[in-house]
Amino acid sequence: MCYLYLLCMYIYNGEISLDKHGVPTILELLVIADELILENFIEPLEDYLIEHHAKELEKNFATLQKTSFMHDPFKKLQNFCTEIAANNPAIVFNSQDFTSLNENALSSILTRDDLNIEESEIWEKIVEWGVAKLDNNIQTKNVLYWTDENFNAFKESIERLLPLIRFFNIFLVDFYHKVKPFARILPGTLYEDLLHHYLVPGSHQKSVDAHSLRSNVDSKLLQSHNIKQLDHWIQGKYENTPFENQLGNDFQFLLRGSRDGFTPADFHRLCDDKGATVSVIKVKRTGQLIGGYNPQSWHSQNEYMNGEGSFIFSLGDGKAGNSKLLKLLESMDLMMGQITGLI
Asked: What is the distance between the alpha carbons of residues 9 and 16, in angstroms, rounded to a whole number?
């Protein structure tokens, strides 16, 4: 075995070269090092994996999570997993081995309020995860042809996760195409309640309020670390200081151009008189995220207002560490109106 050879080299020479070895071999090496209580060997291996193979670790999150939490000394890898789940949970759902993620780990992630992933996408991933747990060859695209036995087996595979799905936050079109085919597995009167919710808006407001959005910023562009960075700047913290665990501002999602429209009229219809706003756009050809912060409420009355505290920014490609505050406006008049409202 390759990893046994590497271990012998370390024991006899005190050093090894890992340049030609991938993540599976190094993880096996870590496991054996833990079993042989080679404590001084574990941390350098963890550092090497995180420094040189972070992308591959992310792609195989389930395997990494399972291995690291089975071995108490793997603290750095455990922290690596925890930070991914906290700051960029989309990586977890998009990992190559997502369907092998254990139920407890998945449940823990689904209890979070800051996933920044649309609930319909979460539901699709849970369906994928549940189908993968079944012994037969069920395919979700053929759900119309499932037997009662198929549905019962599928329900059993995800039954403990169902209460963690916030169905009332799924848009009507997504509900029709993605949830309705599985109506028979929904517990109690949930399916009828959801139908009533969509047909009679406001009829189940208590259920809506009880199942808050994963993030008030239900954005397809921004991840949790982007929102924390914007919150940091809005609070006047312009230096490279650590982010707080809790946001200092209450962000509410107002408009998505692809869903609500891109015209000035659309903008004012949804954003006027809502207080301070952050606007973010994605540059088509480069994928860069740019935007601005306006501390005043937008309105349509064609007049100047004090823009002190406004700023423009770049979030780069959206990845952590690529954000820049481009200009802080200490004294400036903002022109507001139907034509100039969205720039």
From this structure: 6
Q: CA 216, CA 252: separation in Å to the nearest integer?
A: 5
Q: Which amino acid is at 46?
A: E
267/277 Cα distance (integer angstroms): 11
Compute CA distances 136 → 105, 150, 162, 193, 299, whole Å.
24, 9, 21, 32, 58
Task: Answer for the pair 252, 280: CB distance below 8 angstroms, yes or no.
Answer: no
Inform me whether the pLDDT recorded for 300 exceeds 60: yes
Average pLDDT over residues 99-112: 87
Q: pLDDT tens digits, residue range 14-24?
A: 566 566 667 78
* Helix (H) or strand (E) segment spanning residue 210: helix 205-210
Name the H helices within 53-178: 54-59, 61-69, 75-87, 90-94, 103-110, 119-132, 148-158, 172-174
Q: Which H or E run includes 279?
A: strand 277-282
Give the CA-trace dihedral at 243, 245, 249, 254, to 10 degrees.
100
- Largest Cα separation within the chain, whole Å, is 79
- DSSP element (H, E) containing 289: strand 289-294
Question: Which residues, listed in sequence order, are joined to residue 271 by a DSSP beta bridge?
Answer: none
Going by their DSSP bridges, the two strands 310-316 and 303-306 should be labelled as: unpaired
CA angle 151, 124, 159 (to 5 degrees): 45
**What span, in angstroms and rounded, lies between the C-alpha atoms of 123 and 164?**
10
